[in-house]
Amino acid sequence: MKLIFERSVKGRRTFQMPASTFPKRELPEALKRKTAPRLPEMSEVAISRHYTKLAKQAFGVNSGFYPLGSCTMKWNPRINEAVAALPGFARVHPLQPRDTVQGSHEVLNKAREVLCEITGMDDMTFQPAAGAHGEYVGLLLMKKYHEKRGDFQRTRVLIPDSAHGTNPASASMVGFTVTHIPSDENGCVNLDALKAALDDTVAGLMLTNPNTMGIFDPNILEITRLVHEAGGLNYYDGANLNAIMGWVRPGDMGFDVIHLNLHKTFSTPHGGGGPGAGPVGCKEILRPYLPQSHMGEWDSRRPDSVGQVRAFFGNFLVVARALTYALTLGKEGITRTSGMAVLNANYLMRKIEPYFPPYYNRICMHEFVISLEKVKKQSGVGALDVAKCLLDYGMHPPTMYFPLNVPEALMVEPTETENRETLDEAAQAFAEIFEAIKNDPDSLHDCPKTTYISRPDEVGAARNPIVRYQFD
Ligand SMILES: *Cc1c(COP(=O)(O)O)cnc(C)c1O
Asked: What letters, b where the CB count within 10 A reaches 16 and e where it falls short, cover 280-305?
């Protein structure tokens, strides 16, 4: 496909603005550019076709099945968008007089109430912009808590080896050192290793439950108790809340601080860079340290706050979408949502099992992991090849090579918004790929064959992206 600069024809124009009737103001010479910018010159219809063509090449939940493990690519109900687009929400300014934005304040307060109830927390901030940002803020609360008690030696955070990469990254950004806790044979926290790691230098534990393997840790109460007994706090990575909301609450499992990924569990659109929202909830003991007032001025009632972590109220319209989602589902709907997410994952796992058995063969939660290690040894076909072949079936590949403690991993999360026909079609795709591996394994190295580009240099594209047109 041609780039927009390659379509440019000198002198082509779309709509021309009428001449301004305001007096002309000259910019200072020093601020003026010396040469005119080289913008593409096109007609309106050509621009429209160009971007429509590009949009058709993007893959989204609207295009097909999107079982990207750990990302919860569920359907975003359109009523969320309609509410977020209401002028009373979309056109407000954070510096407007407070009495003109009471409705928006009510949205934030109501969202806090609903999400605290779902998670078992006492208070919540909506400032963090995403999950990783929430981790950073939650860990700041943890740090402040220990410092306030004079516990300055608590500098270690315990993190299981199956954790999302953002967990250790956030911990080290806050200045903690990370101790990895190995998984046991069921993919859960190894209790002996946990006990051995606990002492008075531990600030806390970061855990997601169900974990990235899609397995609910049955020892969770024992785990959080051990950490508390050692004087540490428990941090809940809420990225997997979609498996349990309405059934169990992190607050009741013994967690003191959590983040939510509204763009995962609460259906606000994601992929392609956001915006998301990673609100942080906490128990009463951490409330004094929550981020400062939303309006930018220092709130003297909260002298121990960790300060402001983002402008104003965070990504407010994301919160408005999430609240709409929660209220349209209601209490029963929320519970049913996570129930269906778990059912769909187990259904698909068992349909795929004859070809690609799960890495941990037990009832999963909202996602499951398969390993292509054996297949790769026998046929040379690995997780990457299978993922690429799935593209030819019109579906987005599962998450690849994560979690890190599973070799040749594919992590599948169908979500609750897929129907049985879609899951059956996906299982059929896996079955056909399995056949292809038996009959002609080498052909799989050429997949995908139906997409615009086949196998880009992914590392090169990530490390050295060319984002500017290279004029010759
Ligand atoms: C997605 C995810 C995160 C990070 O969330 P972002 O919103 O992408 O920053 C953290 N932990 C787990 C388990 C996740 O799946």
From this structure: bbbbeebbbbbbbebeeeeeeebeeb
Report CA(24)–ligand 1 centroid distance (Å): 50
Domain at 331-457: CATH architecture: Alpha-Beta Complex (3.90)
Element (H, E) at 257: strand 257-259
Question: Would you state the structure tokens that stand for residue 48, as one six-digit string?
Answer: 């429209």
Which residues belong to CATH 3.40.640.10 in the chain? Answer: 79-325
Cβ neighbours for 182, distance < 8 A, ≥ 6 positions apart: 160, 161, 190, 193
Look up tokens 């996570």; give the residue. 338
Nearest Cα residue to atom 4 of ligand 1:
131
The CA distance from 395 to 65, in Å, is 5
Q: Which residues of 115-133 are buried (b: 16+ CB within 10 A; e: fewer)?
A: bbebbbbeebbbbbbbbbb
**Closest atom of ligand 1 to CA, residue 240:** 13
Architecture of domain 79-325: 3-Layer(aba) Sandwich (3.40)
Query: What is the 131 CA–ligand 1 centroid distance (Å)?
Result: 5
Q: Where in the chain is the domain with CATH 3.90.1150.10?
A: 331-457
Reported as a single tens digit per residue, the pLDDT across 47-78 is 999 999 998 888 899 899 999 999 999 999 99
Ligand 1: which of 133, 162, 164 to mutate, most ligand atoms within 8 Å of CB?
A: 164
pLDDT for the residue 268: 87
What is the C-alpha separation between 353 and 357, in angstroms, rounded?
4
Residue 265 Cα to ligand 1 midpoint, Å, equals 11
CA 409 to ligand 1 centroid distance, Å: 18
Joined together, the tokens standing for residue 435 give 């056949």
Q: How far apart are CA 462 and CA 180, in angstroms?
A: 27
CA distance 92 to 82: 16
* DSSP assignment of 194-249: HHHH-STTEEEEEE-SS-TTS---TTHHHHHHHHHHTT-EEEEEGGGGGGTTTT--
Query: Which protein residue has the closest C-alpha to ligand 1 atom 15?
Result: 70
Mean pLDDT lowest among 69-83, 107-121, 195-209, 451-465:
451-465
Strands 177-181 and 123-125, sheet pairing? unpaired
Please provide the average confidence, as pLDDT, over all residues in the chain.
94
